[in-house]
């Protein structure tokens, strides 16, 4: 496979349909977000970033911010681009935004998603708890993970 150039930038409303498609492909058993859900998230003022290859959206991530904490709302990479560092790039963009505000970051991740868990652990997250049957309708469990504020 040839090397692909991946760029990142703000997620746009015109990306919402592609986001919803990726959601349906990756999270079919767990109530994937709709196109409207992405429009709502973008309208809410949360921080969203997209990853693009040849101008096509291949991944996205979102961070909710309050005065006291931040939370990863979503992070997804098209199956054809997984394992190439796109998720790491997206996560680092979210963490940089949280660090600008000196906020801790929290998230939930399926307990059976070993690659995502490894990514989060490598970026300073720790297991905080377990949410039984968090993902619906599959009933999959989730770990709650957190990363302290970087106030450097």
From TrEMBL:
Major localization class: cytoplasm
Key word tRNA processing present: no
A Pfam short name: Acetyltransf_1
CDD domains: NAT_SF
Enzyme Commission no: 2.3.1.266
Keyword vocabulary terms for this entry: Acyltransferase, Cytoplasm, Ribonucleoprotein, Ribosomal protein, Transferase
GO cellular component: ribosome
Catalyzed reactions per annotation: N-terminal L-alanyl-[ribosomal protein bS18] + acetyl-CoA = N-terminal N(alpha)-acetyl-L-alanyl-[ribosomal protein bS18] + CoA + H(+)
GO molecular function: protein-N-terminal-alanine acetyltransferase activity
Limits of the N-acetyltransferase domain: 6-150
PROSITE patterns reported in the protein's UniProt record: GNAT
Localisation per UniProt entry: Cytoplasm
Entry-linked InterPro entries: AcTrfase_RimI/Ard1 (IPR006464), Acyl_CoA_acyltransferase (IPR016181), GNAT_dom (IPR000182), MshD_Acetyltransferase (IPR050276)
Family: Belongs to the acetyltransferase family. RimI subfamily.
Job of this protein: Acetylates the N-terminal alanine of ribosomal protein bS18.
Protein name: [Ribosomal protein bS18]-alanine N-acetyltransferase
